[in-house]
Specification:
The chain folds into 2 domains: 2-152; 158-201. It is built from 10 helices and 11 strands. It has helices at 11-16, 126-135, 139-152, 162-171, 177-183, 188-198, 203-218, 226-232, 238-249, 253-259; strands at 2-6, 17-25, 32-36, 42-48, 50-55, 58-63, 69-74, 81-86, 89-96, 260-262, 268-272. Helix 2 (126-135) packs antiparallel against helix 3.
Length: 273
């Protein structure tokens, strides 16, 4: 199996997209299983010649010659999803930053996420162009095509205060939603509605997921105690940490950190079974 990750080279695209990866797996490779956990990115996965089976919080992808093109947008799940890859696979996955994908869409993000796994086809030429990218074996060609294509769809996204609110929520996670409402002369209800429309999650879920992700990064060396993690990452106590981890991963922190693996630059990659 070949898996390569890339950061956007285009400076404008890099403001909105965290990165993308190419996964190529041949028929003779052993099956791969992993969990993907809730995050604050908007994730688009495309692949060709694959059959998908969906069950409760699990996906099985099997290589096929059916000519099927799959494009899925995932940004609003709250439980871990188990993914199993069997047989040949040719996949590209894009990770957009919070609010990032909105800058490439004609409508709010929520309008593209009414149901899980019902397909994401935002433009008339999307299917044809993505199939052309998947056919390229040269990764440099893929990169150039991908970045040119997404930039051709760039619309920009500016809100009177939502961008700033999210930045401040990330930099000051203890600030209350009431204080943000007062600061921006709006209401908690309006803020909740904006989060629902443009991030497909509530402010409380956004904070919970962000705190969880930051805890993962800070525990890369795996030498930090649960008590230290609890207070360093603004959990109320160790019980709060354990509760959130079980909610978002299905595992206790101890079991989770025992099995997780990381890739370069400290970003969480796979949780292998």
């Amino acid at each position: 199996m070949r898996l390569e990750l890339f950061k956007p080279r285009n400076k404008i695209l890099a403001e909105y997209m965290e990165g993308y990866y190419f996964l190529v797996k041949d028929d003779g490779s052993a099956p791969v299983e992993y969990f993907t956990f809730p995050n604050n990115y908007s994730i688009i996965t495309i692949c060709e010649n694959v059959e998908l089976d969906f069950e409760d919080h699990s996906i099985v992808a099997r290589g096929s010659n059916n000519g099927e093109f799959i494009s899925e947008l995932i940004c609003h799940y709250r439980k871990p999803i188990k993914v199993s890859l069997q047989g040949s696979m040719n996949e590209i996955t894009f990770y957009f930053k919070p609010l990032g994908l909105n800058a490439f869409l004609d409508h709010p993000l929520k309008e593209y996420t009414s149901e899980f796994f019902k397909g994401f086809f935002p433009y008339d030429d999307y299917r044809e162009f993505m199939l052309e990218i998947l056919k390229k074996n040269d990764f440099e060609q893929r990169i150039e095509m991908i970045e040119n294509y997404w930039m051709s769809k760039f619309r920009g996204f500016e809100h009177s205060f939502l961008n700033n609110l999210i930045d401040q929520m990330l930099s000051d996670p203890e600030e209350s939603l009431n204080n943000f409402a007062i600061k921006y002369k709006t209401s908690r209800q309006t803020i909740n509605t904006l989060f629902d429309h443009h991030l497909c999650k509530s402010p409380s879920d956004f904070r919970k997921i962000q705190r969880f992700r930051e805890t993962l990064i800070k525990n890369i060396d795996r030498n930090t105690s649960l008590t230290e993690l609890s207070y360093d990452n603004l959990f109320y106590d160790q019980s709060h940490l354990i509760k959130d981890f079980k909610s978002l991963t299905g595992f206790t922190p101890k079991k989770f950190f025992k099995n997780i693996s990381f890739y370069q630059e400290g970003k969480v990659n796979w949780f292998f079974l």
